[in-house]
Amino acid sequence: MSQSFETQTPVTVLTGYLGAGKTTLLNRILTEQHGKKYAVIINEFGEIGIDNDLVVDADEEVFEMNNGCICCTVRGDLIRIIDGLMKRKDRFDAIVVETTGLADPGPVAQTFFVDEDVARRAKLDSIVTVVDARHLPARLKDSREAEEQIAFADVIILNKTDLVTPEELAEVEARIRAVNRFAQIHRATRCDVPLDKVLDRGAFDLNRILDLEPDFLKANPPHGEPGHVHDEHCGHDHHDHHHDHHHNPPHGEPGHVHDEHCGHDHIHDTTVHSVSLSADTPLDARKFDAWISELLATKGQDILRSKGILDLKGSDKRFVFQAVHMIKDGDFQRPWRGDEKRVSRIVFIGRDLDAEALQKGFEACRA
Amino acid sequence: MPEATQIGFRAYLWQFKSGVVAVAAAEQAGVAGFGLGDGSIALRPFDDPQAPSTRRLIVHADAALLCMAAGPDGSSFISGGDDGRLILSTVEGEASELAAVPRKWIEQVVVADNGSAIAYSAGKRVGLLSSAGQQIAIFEDHPSTVSGLAFNPKGKRLAVSHYGGVSLWWVKAEAQQPKRLNWKSSHLTVTWSPDGKFIMTATQENEMHGWRLSDAADMRMSGYPAKPKSFSWSRDGRWLATSGAEVVVVWDCKGKGPMGSKPEELSQGELVTAVAFHPRHGLVASGHADGQLKLGRIADNSSIDLERVGTAPITALHWTADGRYLLAGGEEGAAGILDFEAGS
Q1: Domains (range + CATH), chain A
Q2: B185-235 confidence digits (pLDDT tens)
């Protein structure tokens, strides 16, 4: 997974519900002057008017890998199509894969790491999810896919912000943040986001992990402000948290985060959320490796993505880490700078995560 | 052929601008065809490899050629492209469209060994044509996109690989239900043994899967570091050479089949990406990920380096029927013809 070839063609995966604005974004990618030619793999050929001679119609054939790993699924159609496209790779610089609103991004992402023939010639650049600010709350209630598309995203375009009030927008953002702590969120009205915020992000490139997430090491927004997500740093005891919930703004107010306490029907409410952990003393490399390996092997089906920057005892370099389900990748990156606080941080995005158990396991990795 | 150490050959090499997808020989015409990613077929007379120029047939204009086979008459090539067209091109350059499937890619084409039938696939569809290119039947009943096609030795049945196994169809126009050989996996290519007894596939999990047709018994051959996507049988059907490892893995398929037996390993080098059994002798040519061609001999497990054809993985290898010429092509457009009589 850490192989890197100059010749790997970057692939941007574009997800989002029908009507969220994916097509608008796709047409911008294909028509704006940015010096690159894109091949496009789409799913609903007839429905989308796209002017490009390298459009391929895919069938979203999701195949389980028969290797004993139940979460290990790949997109068989992508494997074939990328192989076919590479036969005339002089005709394009990069690929965009558009998925249907109902697609789980997991198999798409895993294809780039599981299939060696694909990995040799193409690399996942980032997963971009377009969401509709007005309809997202409803989608999150009735669709597991909507939640997963947010969970997997590196970049989220919060579109149609002109159709909601500032309060609604803040709430929607807070809900996105609760699911995915590390994605970059861009507000937009007609997907009018500069394309350099969407393309060539290198989101899976270990060398660029920090460059991409300026908020990653920053503190959460303060209590009560939009986007604040409770974590171990918010300065109160989380064991008491369950009995002491005054700081979650009431329903409908900015920053309210739906949780098990807010007392209304959450049958289909978000089950995916982020857990971020940190340690200000170095970790033991072997303990961490044993813990993360065991964790992903046993819980990898529910842990959709994880990323970390770690201070390992005995090394002056930052150890960077990322995983998609159970497929993980890690390497030493640049040295810690003198002015940089040596803190290990790791974020898990997953379904029904046991934050306490994760915290305990992580703590036990301290050297 | 003489002792391995005495094998001599002369190599003629070219560099095309586009990668080589497939190679084949139009035997009657004496012409080698190199199917290229830019949609063209490059023609060289294989018995006159020093011919001054390469002829190019632009077959799939503005499209990619995805598959190619020699035509049944020995003087043409049949190719499929991502333009959804199946084209027969004579070595003189006349083209005729055998099939068109709008918006689909034609990814597979095979011609029966005896030339009696042609089959192609586009998505889940398989089209069956007579040797003259007339449509006999269309088979749509496949659970996923078709990944491989293989006729049985007599050209009477067709094996179709896909997700979940292989479907077997009779070569006939009447409506029929396919016989299914099931194995939960993504099967990527299929081959039928020359004695008709075995069907083998390569799987997404870097394994070879097989069925013994007499009792539909499953066979599973694992241990490959990569997908064993290139298969080649010895003419007598005893040996099956496979790619997918840093050696050519050759299974002994006599008797009940290869499962449980230890395969022969030949021609160690970089990852083997293409294999081709010599049509007469117990020799296997292999193409490797670094462009190296090697020749291994079953009898004494010896091997020699032949020629390096470019530096990218070899994608296609083919012996002419008399075993004199070896045709090779690579992912970045390197190509060659090796003449094994000129050098001895």
Answers
A1: 9-212 (3.40.50.300), 272-363 (3.30.1220.10)
A2: 999 999 999 999 999 999 999 999 999 999 989 999 999 999 999 999 999
Residue with the two structure tokens 């990569």:
B226
**Contact status of A41 with chain B (Cβ, < 8 Å):** no
Strand, helix or coil at A173?
A: helix
Residue A35 backbone class (left: φ over 0; alpha: ψ -120 to 50; beta: rest): left
Q: Distance between CA A200 and CA A215 in Å, rounded? A: 19
Which residues 249-278 of chain A have a CB within 8 Å of chain B?
A: none
What is the predicted ipTM?
0.90
Task: Show the domains of chain B with their CATH numbers.
Answer: 101-223 (2.130.10.10), 227-344 (2.130.10.10)
Q: Which two tokens stand for residue A311?
A: 């201070």
Q: Which of A240-249, B174-183, B261-270 has the lowest mean pLDDT?
A: A240-249
Both structure tokens of A132: 């509709």
The terminus-to-terminus CA distance of chain B in angstroms comes to 10
Per-residue DSSP letters for A336-348? PPTTS---EEEEE
Share of chain B residues as helix, strand and coil, in percent rounded to the nearest 5: 0, 55, 45
Q: Which of A57, A66, A90 sits opposite B103 (nearest CB)?
A: A57
Say whether A88 and B205 touch across the interface (CB within 8 A). no
**How many Å apart are CA B279 and CA B283, to the nearest integer?**
9
State how far the Cα of B230 lies from the Cα of B225, in Å rounded to an integer.
14
> Average pLDDT of each block of 10 consecutive residues along chain A (367 residues)?
63 90 89 88 67 77 76 88 92 91 87 92 94 90 88 94 94 92 91 91 78 44 43 37 39 44 43 89 95 93 91 93 90 88 90 93 94
E runs forming strands in A245-316 = 272-279, 303-311
Please tell me the pTM assigned to this model: 0.86
Strand arrangement of the beta sheet that strand A94-98 belongs to: A55-57, A38-42, A94-98, A9-16, A122-132, A155-159, A184-187
CA–CA min distance A127, chain B (Å): 24
